[in-house]
Amino acid sequence: MKGILLTGDKPVIPENTKMIPVYIMGKRYMVPETLTIQKAFEYAGYQWIRGCGCRGGICGACATVYRIMGDHKLYFGLACQTVVKEDMVLAQIPFYPYKRKYHDVENSEPTAETMIANYPEILKCVGCNTCTRACPMDIKVMDYINCAIRGDIERCAKLSLDCIMCGLCTSRCPAQITHYNVAMFARRLTGAKIYKRANHLKARVQEINSGKYDKFMKELTELSDEELKRRYVEEREWEPLNSRDIGWKPQDERFL
Amino acid sequence: MSGYPESLRESIKLVEKSRAERVERVRRGETFKPLTMDQRKEVLSKFHPDYMEGTKRVVNVGPDKGQYFPNELADLLEAHSRINPKDFDLKNPDMETDVLVIGGGGAGSSAAIMSAKEGCKVILATKLRHGDANTVMAEGGIQAADQEVDSPYYHFLDTMGGGHFLNDRKIVSALTKDAPIIAHWLESLGMMFDKYPDGRMKVRHGGGTCRKRMHSCGDMTGSEIMRVLRDEVRNLSDNIDVIEFSPAVELVLDSNGRCAGAILYNLETEEYYIVKAKAVIMATGGFGRLHFNGFPCTNHYGATADGIVMAYRAGVKLRYMDSVQYHPTGVVYPEQNVGLLITEKVRGLGATLLNVKGEEFVFPLEPRDVESACIIRECTERGNGIITPTGRVGVWLDSPMIDMLEGEGTVKRELPAKYIQFIRHGIDISKEPMLIFPTVHYQNGGLWMDENAMTEIPGLYSAGEVSGGVHGRNRLMGNSLLDILVFGRRAGLSASQYIRDIKLADLTLSHVEKYEKEISDAGIVTDRISPMILPDYIRDEVKAKEKTSKYFGTLR
Ligand SMILES: Cc1cc2nc3c(=O)[nH]c(=O)nc-3n(C[C@H](O)[C@H](O)[C@H](O)COP(=O)(O)OP(=O)(O)OC[C@H]3O[C@@H](n4cnc5c(N)ncnc54)[C@H](O)[C@@H]3O)c2cc1C
Ligand code: SF4
Ligand code: SF4
Ligand code: FES
Q1: Which of A14, B75, B169, B404 has its CA 20 to 30 A from that of B306?
Q2: Nearest-5° angle of CA B381, CA B382, CA B386?
C-alpha cells in the first residue's frame, strides 16, 4: 500500500541496530537485539515446526529455558514474548511427557479425595516452589497444588485460571507432578460442580427444545429484505448499560 | 520512564495536552461525529483494502472460475498440489476410520466430541499441537441469547445487520437458536464462565448488539473454551485418535464423488499417509497468515487457508471469500508485537483515536471495516500518521483516558493481558497511549455449506472459520466462538448419521489431476505450491545460502 510500510510478520531492523550473540542450543548466532526469541530463531534461519503456535503469548507452545553464558541461574519464558539478551543460551521445550487421568467431571465430587485419588503424587510435594519460579504466567503453582491437596478446589481453579499449559512447571518438579492437568481437572470441577448452574440458561434451552421460537425464526428466514431491514432499524430497543441496576425490561415483548 | 523513544515523545505531548478536554467531552456524552451511510461508503471504497484497486484478481480455475479473490488467496488457488496423485496406492490406505476431522481448534474438537459420542471412530488430524489455533486467542467472549429480556429473534436481527444483511438466513437461524444450547453444554463440561454467585451468567454488550449477551471467562474466553474441549477430547481417547503435526494436504474422493478421506503429511518424518474415512469434517480455521497486502495479522501461526484450497480443488464453491476482516486496532509499536490484537473493549471503555497532532479524526466505535478505512485515510491521504523508529505508521489509541473515566486501576483490572504485554517493553498503557494500525483479523467468508454444515460434496462437512455464509461480509464480536461450536457440533452429528449406511467405492485423487489440467489449460505457468501449511519467515540472505535444501512452496 502506498506510503505505508507493511512487512507481514517479518520484523523491520533499522541499520544501526546492535547485533548480539545468542546461542541456539549451544550454537552461536548474531541477531538484532530488538527481536523476540521466537523471531531471533527465524532470523538465524530456523523455520518453526514445533514450538510455535499463537505467537501472542497464550497457547503455551513456545516454552523456553535459558541461561546467560557464564551465569549459573536458569531462566524460563515464552519465546514469543521474551526479547533476546546478549549471551543467552537457549533451548526449547516444545513437548514434555505428562500424566493425565480420565477427568470424570460428571461423576466426581470437587474434593481433596477426588484430586488425591487421581493424582496421588501431589501429596509428595516438597514445597520447594520451583514450579512457581518456572511459570511464565506468574502463576502461584505451588499454592494451587496445595489447594488441591487441601480440597479447596475453587481456589485451585482460580489461582490457575491463566495457565496456558506450557509444561514448564512440570519439567522442573522433583515430585514429578503434572501440575497443569491437576489444575485442569480442578477448573472443570469448579465450573460444573461448585459454581451454581444458570437457571435462566436451563429454562431457555427448554424453551428452545419445546419449539417456542420456531415460529419466529421461520418468519425471520422468510421476510422480505425491506421488512427485515425495517425491523433491524426500527424495532430493536437498546438495552442500557445499567440495565441490571434498574431492572430494565423492553417494551416490546412479542418475540421474547 | 517511558518505553517510547524520543522521536515519538513530541506527538505524545500533544495527545496529553488534549486529553483532559476529551475526557470531559466523553463524560458529557459527546463523541466525534459518526459517519453517515454515504460517508461510510465513500471511505470504504477509497481506503478499505478490500475495495482498493490492485488488491484482487480473477481466478481462472476451479468451481468459482472467473471470480475475483484477494491476490494472495488467488495465488494459492492457482497453484500446484503438493503431491503427485500417481505416487499413491489408494487401494492400501495407511489408516481407516469413520470420521476424519481436519483441524484441532474449537470447531474440529467439538465435531470430534459429537461424532465420538455417537459411537463413531474418529481421527483428528491437526497441523500443530491440538489447540494451537485461533480459538485459543479469542479474548472477548461468546454470544448467546439466554437472558429473559433477550431471545434468538434479536440475536438473529443483530447478526444480519452486522453482516450487511448478506448472511445466509437459514444458517443464522441455526446459529442463534443453538447458542443457548452451546452455553449450556460448555457449562456442563465445566467451563468457568464469569457468573454471579447465584449462577446467573454475567453478560455484556458487544459492537452491534441490542441486548447484552456476551459471555466470557475473563479476557481469555477462547483459551478456556479450548482447554475444556481439548480435555474432553482426551477423555474420549478410546474413540478419538489425535494426530498432531500432520496437516492434510489433499482430500480423497471415491469414484462416486463422495468424500472418502485425505492425504496427511507428517511434518517431522516427511511421510505422506492415506487416510480412508467415511466422512470428513473440514475445520482448518482462517487465513490471516496470508498477510494480505503485506499487512500483519492477529492470527496463529497455522492460519494459512489450507482447508479452502483443498476443498476448492475437490469442487466446493466459496462464499464471500473476497471479504477480509481488518481489525482497526493492531499493535504498531513496539516492533516485537506488531500486528497483535488490541481488543475492541479498549474503545468500548472510552479510549479515543488521535492523529500525530493529538486530534480526534474518527468516531471510535464505527463498524470494524469503516474504522479501519478511516485510520488508513488518516495515515495516507491526510498524512497525519505517527512514524515509528522502524518506519511503520500508526495512530494513537488513548488508553489513559480509561482510568480517568472509570477510576484508577481500571486498565489493569479490565485489560490485564494487554497491560502485561506492554509493560514488558516499558510502556504503561494506563499512563501512555498505544500506537495502532489495522491488522488482518478474520476470514469473513469461506466454504459453501448449509445449516447442517454439509457441503455440496457428499460426506464432506465444513465447520468454523473455514466456512462462509454465517457472518455475511462482516462478523460481530462473539459470534465466531459461537459459530465454531454450533457448526462443529452439527457437523459431528450430521457426519455420524451420514456414515451409517455408507459403502465407499474405489478411492481416487482424479480431482487433483483434473485441477492440474485446468491450470495448464488456463495457461497458468507457476511454481507455486498449495496448501501453504506453514508461512515462510526466513530471510532471503539465509535462503540464498541454503544450497542443498529446496523450498517446495513455502516449506523446506
Ligand atoms: C486474536 C483473536 C481474537 C479473537 N477474539 C474473538 C472473540 O472475542 N470472540 C469471538 O467470537 N471470536 C474471536 N476471534 C475469532 C475466533 O477465535 C476464531 O474465528 C475461531 O476460534 C476459529 O475457530 P476454528 O476452530 O474454526 O479455527 P482455529 O481455532 O483456527 O483452528 C483451526 C485448526 O486447524 C488446524 N489446521 C490448519 N490447517 C490444517 C491442515 N492443513 N491440516 C490439519 N489441520 C490444520 C490449525 O492448526 C488449527 O488447529 C478471535 C480471533 C483472534 C485471532
Ligand atoms: S515443584 Fe513440585 S515439589 Fe516443588 S513446590 Fe512445586 S509441586 Fe511442590
Ligand atoms: S502453571 Fe505450569 S503449565 Fe501452567 S502456565 Fe505456569 S508453568 Fe505453564
Ligand atoms: S507461541 Fe503461543 S505462547 Fe508463544
Answers
A1: B169
A2: 110
**Residue in B127, B156, B189, B381 to test binding to A, most A beta-carbons within 10 Å:** B156
Residue B400's pLDDT is what? 96
For residues B294-310, one letter each, b for 16 or more C-beta atoms within 10 angstroms of the residue's C-beta and e for the rest, the string is: ebbbbbbbbbbbbbbbb
Shared domain check, A160 and A66: no
Q: Would residue A5 count as lying in a domain?
A: no
- Residue type present at position B434: M
- According to the model, what pLDDT value does residue B135 have? 98
Alpha helices, DSSP H only, in B364-415?
368-379, 400-406, 410-414
Within 10 A of B174 (CB to CB), how many other CB atoms are there? 21
For each of chain A's 256 residues, which pLDDT tens digit applies? 777 899 999 888 888 899 999 999 999 999 999 899 999 999 999 999 999 999 999 999 999 999 999 999 999 999 999 999 999 999 999 999 999 999 999 999 999 999 999 999 999 999 999 999 999 999 999 999 999 999 999 999 999 999 999 999 999 999 999 999 999 999 999 999 999 999 999 999 999 999 999 999 999 999 999 999 999 989 999 898 788 888 999 999 999 9
Instruction: For residue B31, give every residue at least 6 positions away whose Cβ sits within 8 Å of its Cβ, in sequence order, or none.
Output: B25, B363, B364
Give the up-direction half-sphere exposure of residue A134: CA atoms within 13 A in the CB hemisphere.
23
b/e B468-477 (16+ beta carbons within 10 angstroms → b): bbbbbbbbbb
If DSSP codes are grouped into helix, strand and coil, which group holds residue B80?
strand
Total tally of structural domains belonging to chain A:
2
SS3 label, residue A77: strand
- Dihedral sign of CA atoms B517, B521, B525, B530 in order: negative
The domain defined by B80-139+174-191+220-323+444-508 folds into: FAD/NAD(P)-binding domain (3.50.50)
Q: Which three cell numbers stand for residue B92?
A: 492400501
Which residues of chain B neighbour A56 with C-beta distances below 8 Å? 137, 298, 300, 340-341
Measuring CA to CA, how many Å separate B20 from each of B8, B26, B429?
20, 10, 17
A chain contacts of residue B340, beta-carbon cutoff 8 Å: 56
Per-residue model confidence (pLDDT) at position B494: 98
Grid coordinates of A20: 548480539
Contacts of B140 in chain A (CB under 8 A): none
Amino acid type, A48: W
Å between B181 CA and nearest CA of chain A: 6
Handedness of CA B461, B463, B465, B468 (dihedral sign): positive
Flag residues of chain B having pLDDT under 50. Answer: none
Pairing of strands B95-102, B272-282: parallel
Average pLDDT, chain B: 95
Burial B494-518 (b: 16+ CB within 10 A, else e): bbbebbeeeebeebbbebbeebbeb
For chain A, helix (H) and strand (E) counts, in that order, are: 11, 5
Residue spans of beta strands (DSSP E) within B433-520 = 434-443, 446-448, 460-462, 467-468, 507-508
Give residues 12 to 41 of A whose Cβ lies within 8 Å of B: 12-14, 34-36, 39
Query: Omega into B389 within 30° of 0, i.e. cis?
Result: no
Q: What is the pLDDT of residue B201?
A: 97
Residue A140 domain-assigned (yes or no): yes
Tell if the CB–CB gap between B151 and A255 is shorter than 8 Å.
Answer: yes
Instruction: Return the exposure string of B412-449: e unless at least 16 CB atoms fall within 10 Å of the residue's CB, then b.
Output: bebbebbbebbebeebbbbebbbbbbbbbbbbbbbbbb
Strands A19-24 vs A27-32: parallel, antiparallel or unpaired: antiparallel
Task: Verify that A126 and A66 share a domain, yes or no.
Answer: no
Contact B159, B176 (CB under 8 A): yes
